[in-house]
Amino acid sequence: MKHKKRWIVLMSFLVVYLVLAFFPRPQNVEGSNPMLTSGDLPLLIAHGGGNREFPDNTLEAYYHAYSVDPNVMLETDVSLTKDGVVLLSHDTTLDHKTNLQYADIIDLNYTDLMADEVDFGYDNPTSGGYNTTGELIPYVDYLGNSVTPLDVTYPEGVEARHSSKFLATTLEDLIVQFPNNKINVEIKQSGETGLSALAAVIELMETYDDEYNTFSRIVIASFHEEVYQEMLQIKSNDHPELMFSPESDSVTRFFVLKTLGLDVFYFDQVAVFQVPISQSGIELDTKTFINALHRHNIAVHYWTVNDPDEMRLLIEYGADGIMTDIPSLLKQVFEEYQ
Fold first, then answer.
1. What is the residue range of 90's domain?
2. What does pTM read for this prediction?
């Protein structure tokens, strides 16, 4: 009798598990998801504008990426300045990418950066972490060539801002200068400053939404838990149309649930997973992983991919976006499929 009860419990558990495993997955994005590519080639996503072809997070890099593919998605990192401007910068300090010594962005005014013509055309070495050696190294591309703003192929009617310097660029610049392109915005600052940066990004999106459809083409990302939680609140209370990607814990939770066949319990209202090819020894560049997310109406974008064979693999697996430092290389791979 005792063994029979155990068998009944086990079979009951198995039945429940099988029901859950085949139960329809929740649609984490209601309706159409602009970040999905629906079986077409993935989005070409220019990481920092394509920072191995032109200096990172500069307007010139984005114009170059646009010349490679007018449908390019623009990936950028942002921090808030002292005077409340959303500035494009991979780091929260400017000593790594400019001709300034240690300078925290939150302590600087955008107006001063422009008035002083601070040059973002550097790639200064670090002594570990974000601490630079103090040596100024002018940017060269992945082929070892020096570039200037005059080397960019601009759209008709657009001229170089400066003949030799790569000036500061803002999120507002991207929204206005590229009115039809999708944009990925990663908030780099953390804590109260990061929350203020998020608020400034949302304010920009609200200001320009009527004219430039910002809420249907901008997705926000952050590795900081407090910023992610605030995004959840904004989506719940103010902007249900807001698109963002999850932070690391949410990605891990989905992966575990998927592995157990229980991702029916994953409800985070994210539009896109932005993930590396692998993390902590776990391979994420699989067709199974991509298909599982697609069943939730969630897109999958991979970073940062500069190897042609890996690009081809992700195309074959149905990735929705491939983020690269070398947009012209990914464009060449895309042309193989056209």
1. 75-242
2. 0.92
